[in-house]
Each structure stands twice: as C-alpha cells, then as structure tokens.
Amino acid sequence: MPEVTLDVIADDGSMPTQLDALARQLAFDIRALRMFSVQGVAAPTSSDGKSTTANQIGTLVVSGVFSATAIRALRDVIVAYLDRTKARAVTVRVGSTEVTLTGASASDLSEIARQLTSTVEGGPAEL
Fold first, then answer.
1. What pTM does this model have?
2. pLDDT (tens digit per residue) in 98-107
3. Which of 7, 18, 68, 121 could anchor a disulfide with 14, C-beta 3.0 to 4.6 Å?
4. How far is the C-alpha of 106 from the C-alpha of 116, rounded, in Å?
5. If you ran DSSP here, which 8-state letter would residue 103 be given?
6. Is residue 80 part of a domain?
7. Helix, strand, or coil here: 10?
8. Is 19 within a domain?
9. Are 98 and 92 in contact (CB under 8 A)?
10. Whole-Å CA distances, 21 to 3, 8, 53, 65
C-alpha cells in the first residue's frame, strides 16, 4: 500500500507542543475522510537504550488507496486545514517527489494533484 508523508511546518518560533497539536489536528481532519490510515512517524531512539519509542513531532504518514479522487480529497483537506490553522505550510512527500502546500491557486492545486496521483499510481492521471 503506498504511503504519503506529511510534514507540518509552523512558524519558526513555535514550540514543539504547538507543532504537535497542529499535526494532530491535520491527522483528525484526514481521518474524517474515512479513506486513509494516519500514523505518526517514529523518531530515532537514543543509543543509551533508556529512550522509549516516540513520534517525530509534526510528521504524519498517510496510507490507503490513492485514487485520483482520494488525492483530490486529501489535497482539499490540507488546503482547508492551512486556511484555518496557524500552520504555515504542509510538505507532501511520495518517494522522492516532494510538494509544499501553502496558499495555492486553483491551477496550482490541480497540478499538485496530478503530480501526486501520477507518482502514487506510477503513471499520468487525468483530473
């Protein structure tokens, strides 16, 4: 099953707790679609063996069936999330392809969805 990694980018002065809250809000919004599974990313553990597994703050992994419709729905959720939160941007990564969503025009959003669909499905897609 393909995976998409999302990195929430907040203002430089944001505390880790604020970034964690922003990432949890995005995860909640994506889960509301009922199309995807959303998980935190495990942070590297320390070599002293005393550290427990923790999540990397601000990073989510989204997995599921990424049809063209699902990609558009995910894109729309991210854009709506950016419009209503204090997150500055969300970086979307599929393999080596990376796109950062900030305020984007309708044509930009269509191109982003096309690129992501193409990457996830392994070929070009019409949107």
1. 0.74
2. 888 776 556 6
3. 18
4. 15
5. S
6. yes
7. coil
8. yes
9. yes
10. 22, 10, 19, 26
